[in-house]
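Suppose a colleague, Dr. K., hands you the sequence of a protein chain of 318 amino acids and asks what its three-dimensional shape might be. Before reaching for any lab equipment, you can write down a predicted structure in token form. Begin with the sequence itself:
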Amino acid sequence: MTGPSPDLAARFRADLAALTGDAAGAFGVAVSGGPDSLALLLLAHAALPGRVHAATVDHGLRPESAAEAAMVAGLCAALGVPHATLAADAPIEGNLQSAARALRYRLLAAWAARSGLAFLLTAHHADDQAETLLMRLGRGAGLPGLSGIRAGTDIAGLAIARPLLGWRREALAGIVRAAGLDPVADPSNDDDRFDRARLRKRIAEDGWIDPLPLARSAAALAEADAALDWAVDRLAGERVSPCADGFVLDPADIPAELRRRLVLRILALLGPADPPRGEALQRLLAALEGGATATLAGVKCAGGPVWRFAAEPPRRKR
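The predicted structure, expressed as tokens, is then:
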């Protein structure tokens, strides 16, 4: 088996260091058996010999999944990389892709904790980033959504690093071909029931969209989003005060986007883990700006010169 060239390994090592610094110890790699994750495995093994652990999540959704996980296990054994197959421990219900994703990260987080891994690496790349940005533009997403796939994030208590966001899909496929490997073909990538699959086909057909500039735009938007969060951290100390039953916000002269983020933070403190967004949040902001009172996500919100927020009292049982 031919591994990545020294130049490619050095590029990967630099991209990873930009996200994880001088982190010591072993890194986890999520490997499905598809071309992207196989390339990630090969690059990580070449760049960080002896410091890579791999895991494959078997969702049990297709008859071939067990054999695919066994293929990855065999490749890891040949490379000398410790490997674990993580089997689904609960039925996947609701939206198939989002439920499978939540299960995958939960299993990977538990595996990483058992293995003492500081970071999990995933194989999201520039083409994925471009597709995500275009899909979210089509849905009217705001700045957080248009920031796309984050290069570094935390999911289920696990630190995630995505060092391939500057790499093209075809370049990763070339690494796998050069190694003489036969990657898994995920049928969902060609299934028109999924938005991403349909968009991927359109991009390939049109031929004029270059994913790399789009990926750079998403990265710039992510930096802008982080800068606004930084500003909100400081603004909250000046304009948000606790009161007997909740919080008070002084909205005077605060730009609309910063007001929105401050309200979201207060709702998160008083209400559910995932505060509402979109049209429901816009209606609430309009009510507060008009001096009205509204209830959203279990929080009573009152407008006026200052905005007051309190958890809605439990309803009496009849």
